[in-house]
Design goal:
9-stranded mixed beta sheet; 7-stranded mixed beta sheet; 18 strands; elongated
Length: 759
């Protein structure tokens, strides 16, 4: 306790510079703890989403009595978001429990809406046809997965859902029907966040705990020479670092609380939550309040070991020792694992992510990243010693001699930036994996809308939605129910040749204005429809039933359709001129097509919803819930990349600021003996840029190897992401430019001889 109190007295009584360093340590630690709390809380937010979604899921049975309450659930796409409607027909028992978020079941003609659905109904009254009844209230937060969810409970008469409704037995399951993120995918996201955030975060907190290591070591060496014991000296140093870390942890938790309140009101793209979802749990608080000071304790003891063991060498600046080689061992081990998995990509049987590989792959990548960081001081030391002995340049000699004396000081400045480039490679791999998982099998996306629900004006406006490439109408021929069983049957596409060409992969032999047969070798054929057969299409017009008879011609169009496709399997192409302008064929669908890019699909779906809010949209081959999950995953990955960028930049800023203060006495001494400011700026720049260049080169190589091993074991179609190299190269160049700017404040304009007085 005596040494601890002595450390506190030295902390607040050793001058303004020491206090500035203390608050710099606390401020940097608070930023790191805030990011750590956010990473630890993301799974809690997703679990809260899924828990509320599972709690409101109706338990039902097919066996029902006349007194039972019936329930029917429908989830349809509204634009690029799912809109869930639960129809409830109350039974005569009257004792059924209400779902979460409601105080009672809705009576026939009553509608309870989520706040977002309420706003949508107010802004677009046309969706009232989706919600038959009068709005009676809002669904509480306990009944919604997230604040932006489109959800409604609709009371309805029993006869409306008598055919499809099921008997209500209660509410709530132990699992969510559509989780915010699939458990298997969440594993990859956790690994990505760990690589993007936790690894740089650990390094950043260590950097904060070792600020001004040289001056602190000299002060500790003085205490040791005055008679303080070795352990006592280490405890004095640990007191300062632990108090700074504890203060930083408290500030970081406060920063996270403010961030949670702000983000729950503004939200993230595709991810919203309630304040209680992101509230700090006991586990998160314990990890932050115990983990950060504990890390600072070990780092502080390690940094004070030399001053406590050999104080004279510290006071007299003895010849430097070579940095430890344990970091190189970690790097070699990690690269060995990663390279081994990369080698399987050249064989016919690439490794997968099952069994022991689920542990070895993350371990190899983390060991590579950690080994990269711990190896940089050794490489900087070796390069500095070699160049200092051989160079004839005064500037380069000054720079390399300082790096030789304090290789760790320079590397603390550039470590965060090196890890930023390494993590960017992993982020590229995760993005490639998500792109392939969610990418449709066809380069186009079709949308099918029942033609009977559209007016002529709506058809025109839908065809003009931004991103829509082509449109057509599909319809099926009519079969007489009293006719023979082998009567011909076929489906038709009403479109011009240009429109049809844009709807299919390949088309040959089309002639505008003619009815022509369609032949796709990859699709089935109709029920006996052959050239010369007559196909009848029901085309009501003006309220009177009409029919269109088409004789199947011999002229044929050979085409290959996409899979999936809204016009796949069609056998007849009918020109639009063959139908009356106001015709509405029975069982017809209006087909739109666009690019299959996910962002484009979302824009087109939102554009369709803006034209016809109540229409039933079938995005052919697309799962709206899956589209939502991919959006959530991209948001989480984006958050991780932003946090990694913030941590890496913060580590550089904190270290560069500390280095500027730490080197003032040395810069002043060299300036007083005649060195020009331009020379000193060049020296400071070379001291940082040269080891940083080595670190960035290693980060590029090891990062791409780690990315390749991740893609190979993940079953990706792309093993070697050469397309991502230019982006990483530009990022490395930007990092180098940032480091040059960061060295400029190290040489001030004002020379203060007091800075070189003896302690």
């Amino acid at each position: 306790m005596r040494e601890f109190l002595l450390g506190l007295r030295l902390l607040f009584g050793a001058g303004r510079g020491n206090r500035v360093r203390f608050f710099l340590m606390a401020g940097g630690g608070s930023l790191g703890v805030c990011c750590l709390a956010l990473v630890l809380t993301i799974p809690q937010i997703l679990d809260a989403h899924d828990g509320r979604a599972a709690a409101r899921e109706p338990k039902s049975a097919s066996a029902r009595s006349a007194q039972s309450t019936l329930v029917l659930q429908r989830t349809d796409p509204y634009g690029s978001r799912p809109f869930t409607r639960v129809f409830i027909a109350k039974g005569t028992k009257g004792d059924d429990a209400a779902p979460p978020g409601l105080k009672r079941l809705p009576a026939p003609g009553e509608v309870f809406l989520s706040p977002r659905a309420h706003d949508l109904l107010r802004d677009r009254p046309a969706i009232a046809s989706l919600l038959p009844g009068d709005e009676k209230g809002l669904i509480g937060a306990t009944g919604l997965a997230h604040p932006d969810e489109l959800f409604a409970y609709i009371g309805t008469p029993r006869d409306k859902i008598a055919d499809e409704g099921r008997a209500l037995k209660g509410w709530g399951y132990s699992y969510a029907p559509f989780p915010a993120v699939e458990p298997s995918t969440l594993t990859y996201i956790r690994f990505a966040l760990g690589s993007l955030v936790l690894l740089p975060l650990g390094i950043f907190l260590s950097v904060c705990a070792r600020l001004s290591a040289a001056s602190r070591n000299r002060r500790l060496a003085s205490l040791r020479l005055l008679g303080l014991s070795t352990k006592g000296t280490q405890r004095v140093n640990a007191a300062e670092t632990v108090v700074a870390a504890l203060l930083g942890a408290l500030l970081g938790l406060g920063e996270y609380w403010i961030l949670n309140q702000v983000m729950t009101r503004t939200g993230l793209p595709s991810l919203r939550w309630y304040p209680a979802d992101g509230a700090l749990s006991v586990t998160t608080v314990a990890v932050c309040l115990i983990g950060a000071p504990l890390l600072a304790w070990f780092v502080g003891r390690a940094s004070a070991r030399d001053a406590a063991a050999n104080p004279l060498a510290v006071r007299r600046t003895a010849a430097p020792k070579r940095p430890t080689k344990w970091g190189a061992l970690l790097l070699v081990t990690g690269l060995g694992i990663v390279a081994g998995y990369c080698a399987t990509g050249f064989t016919g049987q690439p490794a997968n992510s099952v069994g022991p590989n689920t542990i070895l792959i993350p371990a190899g990548i983390l060991l590579t990243g950690l080994g990269l960081v711990l190896t940089l001081p050794l490489l900087s030391f070796a390069l500095a010693r070699r160049l200092a002995r051989t160079t004839q340049s005064l500037t380069l000699n000054l720079a390399m001699r300082r790096n030789e004396v304090e290789p760790g000081s320079t590397m603390r400045v550039v470590t965060g930036l090196v890890l930023l480039v390494f993590s960017a490679s992993l982020a590229q791999g995760v993005l490639i994996q998500l792109e392939q998982v969610s990418r449709p099998s066809a380069p186009v996306q079709d949308y099918a809308i029942p033609l009977a629900t559209l007016t002529t004006d709506q058809q025109r406006r839908l065809a003009e939605v931004r991103g829509v490439r082509a449109h057509a109408v599909t319809m099926s021929s009519w079969s007489d129910p009293d006719g023979p069983a082998d009567q011909p049957y076929a489906s038709a596409v009403v479109a011009t040749c240009d429109q049809f060409t844009k709807l299919v992969q390949r088309s040959e032999g089309c002639v505008d204005g003619k009815v022509m047969r369609l032949s796709d070798p990859n699709s089935g054929t109709g029920q006996g429809a052959r050239p010369g057969d007559t196909l009848v299409f029901r085309v009501p017009e003006g309220g009177q039933g009409k029919s269109l008879s088409i004789t199947l011609p011999k002229d044929e169009i050979s085409y290959n359709g996409y899979d999936p496709s809204g016009v796949g399997g069609a056998e007849v192409l009918i020109p639009p001129s063959a139908l009356p302008a106001s015709a509405r064929p029975e069982a017809a669908e209006y087909i739109l097509t666009s690019s299959s890019d996910r962002d484009q699909v979302r824009r087109v779906l939102d554009g369709i919803a803006a034209v016809t809010p109540t229409a039933e949209i079938n995005p052919v081959g697309v799962n709206i819930e899956g589209l939502q999950q991919i959006a959530v995953l991209e948001t989480l990955l984006g958050v991780g990349m932003i946090m990694g960028l913030v941590i890496g930049t913060a580590a550089f800023v904190v270290s560069a600021t500390d280095r500027a203060v730490e080197r003032r006495a040395q810069v002043t001494a060299i300036t007083l003996i005649g060195a020009r400011a331009r020379t000193m700026r060049t020296v400071q720049c070379v001291q940082v840029v040269l080891p940083l260049s080595i670190g960035l080169a290693l980060a590029l190589v090891t990062g791409k190897l780690a990315e390749a091993s991740y893609l190979i074991t993940g079953g990706s179609e792309i093993y070697w992401d050469f397309a991502g190299l230019p982006v990483l190269a530009l990022a490395a160049a930007g990092v180098a430019a940032l480091s040059v700017l960061g060295t400029l404040p190290l040489v001030g304009r004002r020379i203060d001889p007091e800075l070189i007085r003896r302690d």
